[in-house]
Amino acid sequence: MPFEAATLFFGVALTALALSSDLRGGRRKTAIALGILSVTAGVVAGVAEAVGQIWGPAIAASSLALIAGLLLLGRRTSSPPSHTFAWWIGVSILPVVVVGGLLSAINERLLEVSILTLGLMWLRLGAILLTKGRRAGSTEPRLGRLSESN
Question: Which of 35, 46, 99, 134 has its CA 20 to 30 A from that of 107?
């Protein structure tokens, strides 16, 4: 169930990033749609797992939608750091998985290296988003104190 839950939450993150992006028109709508597709396929995969079936097509659809959506966010210099880092995650997913597959040929446990690498990248993205949120929220108390003194 961990992989199914991960695809669901990664899809939620993609949708949130796409909604907060400065992309225009079709690229933004497509990134949002891919995020929603990733979430939906993640839910289907989770339900299938809960009833005792593993439904690979749902996991594959969720993963491919996630990669495409992350790549749509782009790597422009005007993008916020969270969107740029999300793009780098999208770019690195396939090479990291290939390296993990090669490492698992040596020893099955070495596959965990690629999973750990991707997990750390998603944690870093979460940290970037949290610090961004704190900075945006840190102006509220100052404004509150200014209005109280008036």
Answer: 46
